[in-house]
Amino acid sequence: MKTPGLSHSDSARGDLGGNPNSGLGHKPTMKVIGVVGLNGSGKDEVVDYLHERYGVAKLSMGDMVREIAEEQGLAPTRDNLHRLSEQYFSERGRDYFAKRAIQTIENHDWETAAISGIRKPTFVETLQQHFGDDFALVDVSVSDPQTRYQRIRDRRQARDPQSYSEFLQHDREEEEIFHLSHTIQEADIVLNNDESLAQLHRQVDHRLMNGLFTDEAQNRH
Fold it and tell me: If we measure between CA atoms, which residue out of 37, 216, 55, 65 comes closest to residue 137?
């Protein structure tokens, strides 16, 4: 049976209030995949494929922050989202969004879930401590920054940088705020996304689902 999915809006709505520590109790059969990568690397593509091909429930930490911005009447610009993230880190702890993700996964009693938007090393630490060997961190890597830039240009989202120099500046800002390079170093497996989507999907099939997580998710499909 497929694991129920979660839309981007549902990933945050209704789960941001209250105590993120309440009701957290790891179910031993639960499998959680965290996905990390630089802007335009293909993180969301991996999570979407896991959801569509294997029925893995999906969460986005970025969508949690965007939901807060919407509730506060703020435009979802990069600057606004970074300010909100820092505000919540300061007021509620550096691992706040990781705990919200844990709470959402366990409230829904999902057997398998994938989380995109893993950025801070503290997120990884919190998820590792909670799920133990049932958590794996996947880095989606692209060798050439120009490739990542072209891909985000192709998706035509208003919040994306409009020039290559602005794109590189965003990379530097993300590193300064989130220490993303440290998080990437914690990855259990690296998927290279230099080529086609089909090639990326094959890596998910053979290196992730048949490697770190056995074939039980495939058997449910």
Answer: 37
User: What type of residue sits at position 211?
Assistant: G
Separation of alpha carbons 134 and 217, rounded Å = 13
- Asked if the model's pLDDT at residue 23 lies above 80, the reply is no
- Which run of H or of E encompasses 126? helix 121-131
Model-wide pTM > 0.90: no
Q: Three-state SS for 156?
A: coil
Residue 8 per-residue DSSP state: T
Say how far apart CA 61 and CA 142 lie, in whole Å. 21
Rg (CA), the chain: 17
Enumerate the domain spans of the chain.
Answer: 31-220
**Could you give the count of Cα atoms lying within 13 Å of 48 in the half-sphere of its Cβ?**
7
Quick one: fold of 31-220? Rossmann fold (3.40.50)
Residue linked to tokens 């120009």: 146
If we measure between CA atoms, which residue out of 55, 189, 46, 31 comes closest to residue 105? 31
